Amino acid sequence: MAAESATDRALIARLAAHTKWAGTEDRTAATAAARAAFVDHFEREVDPDGVLDPAERAARAASAKKAFYTRMALRSAQVRRARRKARNVNTTSPATA
């Protein structure tokens, strides 16, 4: 199946994902390695030399993960705000402004 456009590629990828998950018995087991790697990433970020106590490393990794998601939320809010502003500028006519 040759993808001719970005839209086609996105639809093909979505189809593949739905097909995979339709045949997956244990979703938790299927994503366990990815979830572990995600946690490991934050642990390596806060303790690259592996010298911290495991409990301290886990606490710092949890904070790093919260910072990651908070940063994503901030960027998302900024983009939504910019899009809303652009949409309002484009729909406001000079007579009503």
TrEMBL record:
It comes from the Bacteria. This is Uncharacterized protein.
